[in-house]
Amino acid sequence: MSLLLTAADPLNGCLISATSSSDVIVAATDGQVACYAAVGPRSTAGGSKPVSPTACCPAESALPHRLWQHRIVGGRVEHAASLACDGSAYLLVTSHGGALPLQAAVVTVTGPGMAPALAARLELGGGGMEDSAEPHEAPATHPKFSNLARCPAGGVGNSGGFLLAASLRQGTVHLIRAERAADGGWELRAAATRLCDRVTMEPGSVIDVESLALGPASASLAAGRPPHLYAAVLYCSHRLGGGSRVRHVACLEVGEGQELRSCAWFHRNVHPTTSLVAALPGARMLVAASDGLALVQADAPQNRQLVPARLQGQPTCAAVLSEQLAVVACGDGQLLLLDLQRLEAAPVVAGPLSAAPTCLAFLPAAGSAAAAAEAGASMLAPPAGLLFVGSSNGGSMFLQLPAWQMVPADDAAQLAASVAPISSACMFEDDCGDRRLLACCGQPPFARLALGCLAAGLTPLASGGGDLPGLVRLLGLQASSSAPCHRYLLLSCDDPAAGSGGCTMALEAQGGELRSATLPGLQADVVTLLASPLPRGALLQVTPQGARVFKPSAGGATVSCWQPPGGIHVSLAAQQGRYLALACGALLQVLYCGGTGRLQEECRLQLPQQASALTLFQLGDGGQEGGELWLAVGLWLTNQVLLQPLSAEQPTCQLALPCQPRSLAVISSGSSGDRGTPAGSSSGGTYLVVGSSSGEVLWWQLAVQQDAFGSSTGVQLEESGWARAGLAPVTLHLLPSAAATHGSNGSSMQAPAPERPTAPADTSVAAAAASSGRARRPTLLAVSDQALLLGPDAAQPSHLAPARLHGAQGLAAACPFITAELPGSSLAYVQGGELHIGGVDPAVQLRWDELPLGDSAVASAALALGSCGVAAVACAEAHGGSSLRLLDASSLDQLAWLPMPAGHAITALAAAHLPCSSLFEAATGGPGSGAGSAGGSAATVASGAPAAAEAGTKEFLLVALSADAVAAGGSGQAAEGELPDAYGAGAAGAESSQPWWRQQPTDQRQPASGQQGQQAGSSPQPQPAAMLRVYEVRQRQQPEPAPGSTGTSSSRGHELVLHGSCPLPTAVFSLTAVQPDTQAYSAWIAGTPPGSSGSADTGTPAERPSAPVLAAGCHDGMVRLYRVYIDDQGVEAHRTVQRGLADIAAAAMEPLRLSAEPEHQQTGQGGGAERGRIGGTNQQASHPPALLAPTLDRRLWHGRVALQLVAKAPTCFEGLPTSLTAAGSTLCALDLLSSLTAFRVQPLAAGQPPSLVPLAADLAGQHVSAALPLGPGGHAVLAGLANGGLLLLQRDEAAERQHHAAAKQHWDALREQGATGEDEAAAPAARPNAAFAPSLREVTALEPLSVASPSTTAALGYGGSSGVAGIFPGVLGVALRRFGELGEPGSHGCSADSMPRSGSRGARQVAPPASEVLPSHGDLATVVCANGSVLTAQVVNPEEHNTLWQLQKVAEATAEHDTMLALGPADAAGGAACVPNAAIDGSLLKAAYTQAAWRQRLLRAAPADVVHRGRCILEARSVL
User: Fold this and answer.
1) Nearest in space to 770 (alpha carbons), one of 622, 621, 629, 612
2) Is the model more confident about 510 or about 135?
3) Residues 6+ apart with CB under 8 A from 401
4) Mean pLDDT in the chain?
5) For residue 610, what are the contacts with CB-CB under 8 A and spacing of at least 6?
6) Helix (H) or strand (E) holding 1487
7) Can you give the pLDDT at residue 1207?
8) Is the bond preceding residue 645 a cis peptide, omega within 30 degrees?
9) How do 25-29 and 32-39 pair as beta strands?
């Protein structure tokens, strides 16, 4: 097996550097390099604008334009700097996994496609440097680079060139020189200098370089000498093993041999906040600290000038604006403008930036430098240009000078959308079943949460017209049938206050604006259902009163009109070419509009009931476009869709749905020109799309059945799939391609259906139907409370693929609207009560929404509760303490903030499905039933619980707390109760017929003496050092919204209930729930097949599935296993009272004391004492009194929570388990020492509670930073390595069983021999009643199967040294489902609450026929990297690997390298041979199949059967 890796987002990564020359800025992330230049201002028109541009920059500002962008393959970018003013050459420094040696290269950019080419290469930090390095000169933690300085002619080496200083090792500075060769090429040279040979230092000290700068010598002191450079070095000196860190600044002269020579000046013991040196005009060096700035002459230290300034944080970077001005940035987001002549400094940006700047680059406007020199630039009038403010801790931006305003940079959108660095993340399913990411990003004061989804994008271009009245419908209208763009936008409002029930307003696109317009002949006092242009300048308007054709050019004269019979109203309208269908109740009238505009009745159909949806379309032979005219209509009551050709008298097809059809459309995918489809498949198809009243979008492929004479006998529907657009009724709108025209014979539209008297006011439907042959690749927009795009798949044009539309939440109305007045416009929509014009970006990529946490907090962990749509975030407050924030998982709106107990920090969060009394009693038949274990009998799973959850379980929020000293690494371990005898076989006297939480002896169910409740006025007991809190987030019913108000997801009501706080023996740093194996350990090692009728050792029937248990990774290096039961309905308290009363009635006995009740009835232990109402405002929940001391750890009940320790086991190297992940009954523990240990959770014998059985471990020390078991049984483990690679580890299940069986046989032999000794494993006779307990001696080694090296992952945008923030099962994107999940026709299977989610698939997949079984997501994983990149990883078998490897080599050979630069070593002879354990680059293969030109080259270079096999593999793996 091997790994198939696919990048799920744009290759932006984390920003590394940004440098500027006179005309360009070169910005580098860890996966690519891009070059930007300034372009002219945007042309805008003045005047009053109902819809105004949303850009915040002035109209005359220049915009950044990307000249080229290169993807770097084979290394991680460490630095990039421009060597030419036009960006035609740049110096690139890369690494492999962040380790030495580094590679320096000169890259030239030539040709019309701006293709990169390597002109020179050089290795840095390798060779003799390592041979002669001191033992303590380790590689630098992060390489540091200076500015790129131009070598003066006649200076160093007596020629020009460029010089870059770099610190790659502790105490060493490399000087890298790039210069032109005699033949016009480039040459690279490098030399290293040890600072210990140039500056004084104490013996045994280590030098860490923190900042570097290169600058020229002053002209006055360089007289009579060749021009030369100086290097300023800010370094920190400290002793080995720790001690104080002292900072110094040294300025050294650059010699002719590219080495650092004598020290010109030296500043010892500078201020501790000094963090930056930078070169300034006038041969000066800037030494910047938080308390002030110092300007020092490069070779005249006596000319030191101080600038009084106090920065909010430590200086991070600086940039020169002119000979007089410079700008300095600090870590708190402050920008400081520095006047080099007046020695003044002042902040220039009101308020902090969105991220801490780490690099600045200035691009002056044309002629601004000369103008500034003439006028004398000042702090009030800085030079014009673009200032790039880059950040490696968040998004970057361009500021327009001198206004200091943000510039909307479309070409730099990837840099602006960076969410790096990600510290932790989680993946969850939202209300629609889409998988999303929730990430904790950044550091204070720029800590934030990021919500990511794989989606297309909606970008607003203009907005205005707030508070639109009533229910609004939007209709785009061309001026004529041949016009390529829309001219008018009609706003049709259903206003009950109006006398006629509605109105229609017209807006005209003219002069870059939308202005109110008067359209002669348009009826403005009624609702408009449909409007379209007709030939000869006529327009068609359909209202509830009928249809009317008029000519605006003739003063609005009526050409023709039609009114429904009997005074009934038109409810639906649809148009195809010159045919018009109108639904009037149960009557359907088809009209024909002739060339003169006259409306003629074509036919009339009587429906069995009122129509709910309507469309007209043409369907030819085989489902192709063109041909006979068909009608599709949905019915209100029976949830049917009728398909009927107009030539027939009766419907030829009836489609029964489990949900009500509210909109219909027909869309064609592909065309005859598409190639590369599998053999035997159609190159295109026509699809019927249905939008339901409950938020689903369903589609079928259509094919006409004909008789021998060519007449239509019926239509065949082939099931394709369905996806959820939202939870509200769906409307469908056609978005044609940019090249499509919108004439009357090129579109078919359906008008809204008015609400029925019993329907809510927001269920009106508007749909646009099939496109004509003019629009080759149209897209359907499905609008609900969210939006979905449905269009041809890029890899399979004959299929449709759904994609979420980011930015389209809460759309109230939408329609296609393309106007030349707003380039890029494609959609008009109403959102938040305002009218917007926007553009749709169909590219499906990872898009983020961010929530800043402010200056006071940083998120340490986050998770989402799928059952209620709430996310829980653990935050560390800046002022001390810890808090829990609850957010709406879909909108990031904060719902509540709960402070944790003083002196305690949150160390772990988990959302777990655990047994509880509310569902256990229902599953077992009510209170008092003698079930053996929670969830032991079949019962209905709670709504929102995953399919794998056992009956009787519900989702709870678990919060682990520990004292601050323990969380920081202190001891704080408390006494722990012993495990139950024989690993929980049961205590003497316990009621074995009762569940385990009722089997505790009476003396253990009572609190200890002196703790029978807190008396009035008594002081609370101290908090334990570590505790586990069990919360429940409950949805509560909200009152009905007021008329006219809109409810959003953030207004959903919840309440937070604390069920109990359980003391723990030590701090817990990881939590997860795991489902125990039903097979006992004794049966497993005996080789008994799972699911046998009995147990091998006892002969008793096999146990029913037990409830999930809780695994905890503890501070002492142990993994503990707990059984948990939550009495969320107080059943156990009621049962105890009832039992006591029954005992009193049965026999004379001492009256029942209140203190004999379970602990959750005691004062201070009341479950639910902490209860918070969560609504639209932030509220705090009160905390219960102090918990009991940790001496009561042996108690079973704590509040309403029963917690019992059943097993514990150490990890392989006994390190702190920082992460626990489960797959089925397999539990993987990742400890602090990077060891990975796999356990099986199963009982040792039938009837016993689960235990931890060690199976396998990573014994090679791979330095694993994240891990995920794959498959239902965890047969393989996907691990993220600290050096930036990915590793697939394989478990040998047969070897595991053999090891344990041999150890058991050896133990039995020793027991028979009566062996004794201190070692319990070798001394079974020491405990006559002891049972064999497996230990770490029986573990096997996890064998590596596939390796994705840092170079491979870097090629996918995954920075080599960035690390992995998390690995999660499944893939991101829209859940595409099969029809079997909808339920039987007529059922309520379409409701959101009952929608199954276990069969959801990744985005861009097409569901197979209902007879096929969808593949499991067990071998699919999403890898979230710290630099913000996201990968999809999946396992392929050896045969698939061989095919894909062969295709990958052909794709690499046939790729056009205009946007890609390969840095890896050239393949040796035979390099195309298959490497068994190498990862496959799925992104490369996806591009090869989806790009038409590349696909043709692939077809010519590779065998046809290999290309076809590869496509099938990639389609089955959701890559295509």
Assistant:
1) 629
2) 510
3) 321, 362, 382, 383, 384, 385, 386, 387
4) 76
5) 571, 583, 585, 586, 635, 636, 637, 756
6) helix 1482-1490
7) 92
8) no
9) antiparallel
950/1076 Cα distance (integer angstroms): 11
Q: What would the pLDDT profile of 250-286 be if each residue is shown by its tens digit?
A: 988 888 777 888 888 888 889 999 999 999 988 889 9
- Residue 422: is its pLDDT beyond 50? yes
* Contact (CB, 8 A) for 916 and 930: no
Residue 1052 makes CB contacts below 8 A (sequence gap 6+) with 869, 888, 1035, 1038
User: What is 892-915 written as a DSSP string?
Assistant: --EEEEEEPPTTEEEEEEEEEEEE
Geometric angle at alpha carbon 561, from 556 and 563, rounded to 5°: 135
Token pair listed for 627: 């041909």
The string over 1112-1151, giving b where at least 16 C-beta atoms fall within 10 Å of a residue's C-beta and e elsewhere, is bbbbbbbbbbbbbbbbbbbbbbebbeeebeeeeeeeeeee
Q: What is the pLDDT of residue 804?
A: 93
Number of other CB atoms surrounding residue 1069 within 10 Å: 21
DSSP, res 855: T
d(CA 1174, CA 868): 12
Gap between the Cα atoms of 1180 and 1176, Å rounded: 13
Pairing outcome for strands 1171-1174 and 1197-1198: unpaired
Q: Are 1152 and 1141 in contact (CB under 8 A)?
A: yes
Look at residue 1494 and give its three-state secondary structure: helix
Q: What is the dihedral of CA 1231, 1235, 1238, 1243, to 10 degrees?
A: -50
> Quick one: which of 869, 854, 904, 866 has its CA closest to 883?
904
Supply 213's token pair: 């700068």
Q: What share of the chain is helix, strand, coil (3-state, %, to 5)?
A: 10, 45, 45
Q: Is the pLDDT of residue 1187 over 70?
A: no
Helix (H) or strand (E) holding 1313: helix 1293-1313
Cα–Cα separations (whole angstroms), residue 897 to 853, 894, 1037, 1060, 1197: 12, 8, 21, 19, 27
Per-residue pLDDT at 1395 exceeds 50: no
Q: What is the pLDDT of residue 315?
A: 93
Q: Which residue has the higher pLDDT, 1002 or 778?
A: 778
Q: Residues 6 or more apart from 209 whose CB is under 8 A from it?
A: 140, 144, 167, 170, 171, 173, 195, 233, 234, 235
**Chain position carrying tokens 């940083």:** 858
Question: Radius of gyration over alpha carbons of the chain, in Å?
Answer: 36
Alpha-carbon distances of 454 from 125, 307, 843, 844, rounded to whole Å: 40, 49, 10, 6
Residues in CB range of 115: below 8 A, 6 or more apart: 109, 1456, 1457, 1458, 1459
Task: Classify residue 246 as exposed, middle or buried by CB count within 10 Å of its CB (0-12, 13-18, 19+).
Answer: middle
Across residues 16-42, what is the average pLDDT? 85
Strand partners of residue 915: 953
3-state secondary structure of 196: helix
On the CB side of 511, CA atoms within 13 Å amount to 9
Nearest in space to 942 (alpha carbons), one of 965, 966, 967, 917: 917
Pure H helices in 823-976:
917-924, 964-967
- Whether 1274 and 1242 have beta carbons less than 8 Å apart is answered as no
Interior CA angle at 1466 toward 1465 and 1470, to 5°? Answer: 125
The length of the chain in residues reads 1520
Percent of the chain predicted with pLDDT > 70:
72
Most confident of 235-249, 296-310, 324-338: 324-338
Q: Is the dihedral of CA 176, 177, 178, 183 positive or negative?
A: negative
Q: Quote the DSSP letter at residue 203.
A: T
1089: phi then psi, degrees, rounded to nearest 5: -60, 140
